[in-house]
Amino acid sequence: MQVPTIEQLGLPEVCRSLVVKRSGLIVVTGPTGCGKSTSLASMMDYLNRGEKRKVITIEDPIEFVHQDNMCVFSQRELGTDTKSFANALKYCLRQDPDVILVGEMRDLETMAAALTAAETGHLVLTTLHTPSAPQAIDRF
């Protein structure tokens, strides 16, 4: 499946500037089926077209297969390659990625691991299932 561009999705300009940062935590929130994963995939595609980075994705399931362009991707799938998001986050740090995409933060352990990765100099992108953006704060 072709990854839609940031322009095609009509995402705000800030998505371009955020995804090229060297570290931090980007959380895309919203209800089921609103395009959170597709938005992250388009941001990864933008990064892949313009920046040299080592990217590890942890997904359930893998929705878009990213071909290496300027970035080098390693995509992991829950159940096939790892037992949990938190477990995969712990072990992927040993591979010194620049960017980590976590398909969804479902539990406190995953949230803590994502925050730790961001605090230690990685750019972490993830989704959080919430009815609205303000409710995402309550989930943390």
UniProtKB/TrEMBL annotation:
Residues 93-107 form the Bacterial type II secretion system protein E domain. One of its GO terms (molecular function) is ATP hydrolysis activity. Pfam families: T2SSE (PF00437). Belongs to the GSP E family. This is Bacterial type II secretion system protein E domain-containing protein. It comes from marine sediment metagenome.
